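Sample intake — Metallo-beta-lactamase domain-containing protein
Collected from: Izhakiella australiensis
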Amino acid sequence: MMQLYEDLWVSIPQELTEGAVTPPLMMHGFLLKHARGNILISRMENPIDHQAIEEAGGIFRHYLTHWHEAGPALPLLQQRFNAALYCHNKALGAVTHFAEPDDTFSQAEVHCGSFHVVPTPGHTPGSTSYLYASPNGKTYLFVGDTLTLYDGRWVTMLGEDSNEADLHQSLDFYRALRPDVLLLSTTSGDVPWQEVDLPRWLAILDEAENSPLDLRRGEVDA
C-alpha cells in the first residue's frame, strides 16, 4: 500500500481482467484510519496489501461500493482480521457467492459516528458512496465506479445492470457534496485519487455526465 494522507492509504493497482477496454482498467482499494478502528473500502486482492493491513493494525470493517468488488479475498480478509463485511442489500446476492456479509444497508446511514454511507445507484442498483470528514481537515468521497478518470477523461461507467436515469440522479446528488479528495475504485491509470475544489468538482461531474464509458461495448461514447 501507499500512504496518501495521514489517515489514508491506497492499494497496489491491479488490472481488471473481466472487461475488454483499452487502455485496461485498474482496481484500487483504500485503508482508512478511523478513531474506532481501521476501515477497508472497495476491493483489495493482493496478499502484499493484506500484509500491509496487518502491519497497520488490521481492519475491523470492510465496505464494498458495489458488487463488482466481490472477489476471492473477501472471506480471507474476514477470517484473517475478524472484519465485518458491509454492502448494499441489492448487492447481497452477488457478494454471497464469495462471502456472507455481516450487515447490509438500503438507505443513507452514518456508521461509527462519522462515516457516511450514501447509496448512489446507477452504475449498479446497489452502488454506494462513502463520505468521511477526516480530523486532518480534508473530506474524502469514495465514489466506487460511479465515475472515474479514464484515458484522461472523466466518465461515468455503464455495465450490464446499470440504470442511466438512476446514474444521472446520483450525479445530481453529488453536486450538493463538497469533497476535498475523490477516491476512485477503478481507473485506467495508477492514480485513483484527485484533490478538488468546488469549481473543479462541478466541472468533473459535467464532463463525466456527458462521457459514458460503456463496458458492454468496450468503448467510450464520443
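Post-analysis note: The mean pLDDT is 93.
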